[in-house]
Amino acid sequence: MAKVGLIYGSNTGNTEFVAYQMKDEFDKLRPGLVEVHNIGQSTPETLMKYEYLVIGVPTWNTGQIQDDWEAFLPKLAALDLTGKKLAIFGIGDQNGYGYNFLDAVGMLGDAFLDRGAQLWGMWSAKGYEFAESKATVEDVFMGLGIDQDGQRDLTTERIQKWVPQVLAQFGV
Q1: What is the CATH number of domain 4-167?
Q2: pLDDT score at 157
Q3: CB contact at 8 A, 90 and 119
Q4: CB 119 within 8 A of CB 78
Q5: Partners of 89 in the beta sheet?
Q6: The pairing of beta strand 118-120 with beta strand 85-91
Q7: Domain spans of the chain?
Q8: What is the pLDDT tens value at each position of the chain, 172 positions in all?
Q9: Phi-psi region of 80 (alpha: psi -120 to 50; beta: other; left: phi over 0)
Q10: Fewest CB atoms less than 10 Å from the CB: which of 48, 83, 122, 128?
Q11: pLDDT at position 2, please?
Q12: DSSP characters for 7-64?
């Protein structure tokens, strides 16, 4: 069984596309380590079977969390995630929604931290242009920020830098 569960939510397919691009990068470095799941088809047991979690979430409209993650949040509230290592990546549009860029990363990150998870995979906010985000602490995002609308050309490079960082921080 893989040690890392990569769990994403996606309405339009953007986050799903990035999740599988990310899995390919993990496989280049540690083949078979990562298993991918859509949160819309997952249960709390799906999350609990992994020691390490990589979570993908897009921010919708004016700072809303993706539908499937929103539906899953009450189930998450019942879990004890103490000791679980977590890394988050988020999809957002910094140009169109600069006042809530990657807010869902912050909301989901807080929910996981409240349940005892440990957050890894922080990412510099330099190179992005936005006004506000619930995903930032000073100049650092709670996870990898992906902008498929305004910076699609940087997605692969960002994933190639973030995945080894996460593996090293996870210690796998």
Answers
A1: 3.40.50.360
A2: 97
A3: no
A4: no
A5: 56, 144
A6: parallel
A7: 4-167
A8: 469 999 999 999 999 999 999 999 999 999 999 999 999 999 999 999 999 999 999 998 888 999 999 999 999 989 999 999 999 999 999 988 889 999 999 999 999 999 999 999 999 999 999 999 999 988 999 999 999 999 999 999 999 999 999 999 999 8
A9: beta
A10: 83
A11: 66
A12: EE--SSSHHHHHHHHHHHHHHHHSTT-EEEEEGGG--HHHHHT-SEEEEEEEEETTTE
DSSP state of 72: H
| E runs forming strands in 72-134 | 85-91, 118-120, 123-124
119 beta partners: 86
The token duo for 87 is 């890394």
For 12, the token pair is 């339009």
pTM exceeds 0.90: yes
Helix (H, G, I), strand (E, B) or coil at 105: helix
For residue 101, the SS3 value is coil
Q: Two tokens at 132?
A: 């506000």
Say if CB 61 and CB 6 are below 8 A apart.
no
- pLDDT recorded at residue 98: 86
Where b means 16+ CB within 10 Å and e means fewer, 83-101 reads ebbbbbbbbbbbeebbebb
Contact 127, 157 (CB under 8 A): no
Amino acid at 35: E
pLDDT at position 109: 95
